[in-house]
Amino acid sequence: MKAVEILRPGGPDMLHLTERATPVAGAGEVLIRVQAAGINRPDVLQRKGGYAPPKGASDLPGLEVAGWIESGDPGDSGFRVGDPVCALVAGGGYAEYCVAPAAQCLPVPGGLTFAEAAALPETFFTVWSNVFDRAASRRASRCWCKAARAGIGVAAIQLARAMGNTVYATAGSDDKCRACVELWSGARDQLPHEDFAVAIKEATAGRGVT
Questions:
Q1: 208: in domain
Q2: Which of 83, 96, 114, 200 could bond to 35 as cystine, CB 3.0-4.6 Å?
């Protein structure tokens, strides 16, 4: 298969088209015929030499992909060979084929292209896992998003608002804060980056966030 590897740490010119063996899906994994791959900060850091792939992961960059399930072991995930999915992976996304755990796959949302779907897993998986699974945030909660203009923050604002939550955002500049407020009926208030704890207490009449 064709893949994009990093020749050595450096600029974008260090990304090199090469040939690699097609990976093989193991138990609980699926092989995805990649149609699009997302670009994230860790990919850029890896290219520059500042991010090492997790132990056992592919040395190829790419942490999120979208495409069709080519083969593998979907198990009880509800997916079948031929289904269009987007997936969060530990690496290897910059290639024609990529292995992903079936549990880290999502159906491509209706109306989205593969390119659009490939931009979902890294941020939206992270937000959903941390805010709604681990923190058990529910409707009508009050949420605080730090560094809210970054990718994770933008996803957090959108998901929290979709769940009916009130969102308070902090970011590194007034322009970034205003962008958060404007984002899809966005954050309720733009709060100062400094002394945000005091500001949130004042904005919530002492209740804080939940």
A1: no
A2: 114
